[in-house]
Design a protein that fits this description.
The protein is an all-alpha fold. It has five helices and no strands. Residues 67-88 are annotated as: Disordered. It comes from Periplaneta americana.
């Protein structure tokens, strides 16, 4: 952000929000970029044949007993949370 602020000629004392600085420099927020790429990858894997490794790994159910404690997040769980955030 320091570099972007210097590009547009602002300092932290000018109290300009980061979003405004990114908009002026036409920079995409990294979180939005990653969420978009994740959705694109999910759509890509969805179009694959059922025998492809990526599709099998994405849709696979865990075999055996579950471990003790909180379950680890799956890749699909993160995709569902990003899609619910974009609706709100």
């Amino acid at each position: 952000m320091n570099t972007l602020r210097s590009i547009i000629g602002k300092t932290r004392r000018d109290r300009v929000r980061n979003k405004e600085v990114r908009d002026k420099c036409e920079i995409i927020d990294i979180n939005k970029f990653v969420k978009g790429r994740k959705k694109e990858w999910n759509n890509h894997v969805t179009r694959m044949r059922d025998d492809r490794i990526a599709k099998i790994a994405r849709d696979m159910k865990r075999l055996g007993k579950r471990g003790i404690g909180r379950p680890q997040l799956r890749w699909k769980d993160g995709l569902q949370s990003t899609s619910s955030e974009s609706r709100g």
